Amino acid sequence: MNPALLDNITHRHLRIHTERAAQRGDARHFALALPAEFRQLQAHFPIVFQLVDGGTGFQPVALFGLEEGQNVFLTDTGWDAPVVPMALQRDPFLIGRGPDDSLQLHIDLDSPRIVRAHEGEVGTALFMPHGGFSDYLDHVVQLMEHLHAQAQQLPAFIEALTRHQLLEPFAIDIETPDGEQQRLTGLFTIHEERLAALPGAALEALARDGHLLPIYMQIASLAQLPVLLERSRRR
Q1: Dihedral sign (CA 195, 200, 202, 207)
Q2: How far apart are CA 228 and CA 63, in angstroms?
Q3: How far is residue 37 from each of residues 86, 115, 174, 182, 215, measured CA to CA in Å?
Q4: For residue 21, is pLDDT > 80?
Q5: Which contacts qualify for 73-79: CB closer than 8 Å, 24 or more apart?
């Protein structure tokens, strides 16, 4: 990774590959999913929880495949789903902090989405000829602001789930094309019985804090597991 503060002088000619393709970094089997997205994502992807590296907490992710590098929503013609998680949309941009702690937009200059000189004038421009933001960059700025705001709410959501012991481990059983049985582990989901047994005051607090809706959306998203398994089997 080679992050750089984006500016309209140094990067005035920079262009971005915006299509969804394996060679652009989209061959991944999951992406971070934020609770504010669960309503849209649950109709297309299973949403599960994984332990963060180091085992210090959990993060929700949308599953695109069953093994490293597998994305069953990626086709020869692009992305085969109506929505794309914000964490995937943001590539190759990042949020940084300025000396005054203000938010700054950075770009990963090593990203496969950067159009290289030998590729010519393909891709989408970031800046207008006279330095103003392109429509695409305006969209990116709005996306990153929303992504950052929603990411600030994630720790409180995870804390509520762990406080009420609502996360339980589960596994996905997979049958390979040659009939071999495999199991995908290390995943967590909402413990429905424990959720139903919570006292009214706890449920009211979860609803008041905006946590109850994404909880139910995560549970609903598991209906997409058979779809994911079938897409994987057809691959």
Answers
A1: positive
A2: 8
A3: 8, 29, 27, 30, 12
A4: yes
A5: 73/44, 73/45, 73/231, 74/20, 74/21, 74/22, 74/26, 74/27, 78/19, 78/20, 78/21, 79/20, 79/26
State how far the alpha carbon of 25 is from the alpha carbons of 74, 88, 101, 144, 177, in Å.
11, 9, 30, 19, 26
The residue with greater pLDDT, 174 or 78, is 78
222, pLDDT greater than 80: yes
Domain that holds residue 138: 3-234
Query: What is the mean predicted confidence (pLDDT) over 58-63?
Result: 97
The rounded distance, in Å, linking the Cα atoms of 209 and 7 is 38
Amino acid identity of 212?
A: L
Among residues 103, 117, 107, 124, the alpha carbon closest in space to that of 16 is found at 124
CB atoms within 10 A of CB 215: 22
Q: Structural domain tally of the chain?
A: 1
Whether omega before 169 lies within 30 degrees of 0, making that bond cis, reads: no
Classify 46 as helix, strand or coil: coil
pLDDT at position 162? 96
Neighbouring-strand partners of residue 15 = 125
CA distance 61 to 29: 10
pLDDT at 214 over 70: yes
